[in-house]
Design a protein that fits this description.
With about 180 residues, the protein is an alpha+beta fold. The chain is built from five helices and nine strands; from the N terminus they run H-H-E-E-E-E-E-E-H-E-E-E-H-H. It is globular. The N and C termini lie far apart (about 45 Å).
Length: about 180
């Protein structure tokens, strides 16, 4: 399975992205938010993976994914995300069967507020592979953000509440089912 993870990592990331977006859209639908736009970056150079727009709020989202139980302690986040009006990072963990695992890890501010460079810290990331001498150069536009800077978000509805200001879900209650 780990060989497939490295050989097909971009496919795996798309599967995880589709699942997460689907869960977010389902929760928004249950809250009465039916007209939500989902846009994707054409190339990986603008600091975000997707854009979610509801009413007049636009969220530029950088997604990160790690195998559940993995030991990854930090992720690289593009400083370009701070140039967006309401940028954020969602770090998901996934099971071997590609199910999303909770909690989610959130880095961002309230809806409409920009992510600040200070939110990312000052640890400049390095390239993962060295040059011919083994030197791993700095990546000036990427900050290595430790897990402790992220807020744990236990559920999709709580994640959606961080993304947008919308009503609570209108799901069935015990009284509705009686």
């Amino acid at each position: 399975m780990h060989n497939a993870d490295s050989l097909f990592s971009s496919y795996r990331e798309r599967v995880l992205e589709h699942q997460l977006v689907g869960e977010i859209l389902r929760d928004l639908w249950q809250r009465g938010a039916h007209q939500v736009e989902v846009l994707h970056a054409e190339v990986d150079g603008a600091g975000y993976d997707l854009v979610l727009e509801y009413q007049s709020l636009v969220r530029h989202v950088q997604l990160k994914a790690t195998r559940a139980g993995g030991k990854r302690a930090s992720v690289g986040v593009s400083t370009k995300l701070t140039e967006k009006p309401s940028g954020c990072v969602i770090w998901v963990h996934f099971t071997p069967t590609l199910a999303l695992a909770t909690p989610f890890y959130w880095l961002g501010r309230e809806p409409g507020a920009p992510l600040l460079l200070s939110d990312l810290g000052d640890r400049v990331a390095r390239h993962t592979k060295g040059d011919s001498t083994g030197h791993k150069a700095l990546r000036a536009g990427i900050r290595e953000v430790p897990k402790r800077r992220f807020t744990l978000v236990p559920t999709v509805p709580e994640l959606v509440s961080r993304l947008f200001t919308v009503n609570s879900p209108q799901g069935d209650t015990a009284a509705d089912l009686a």
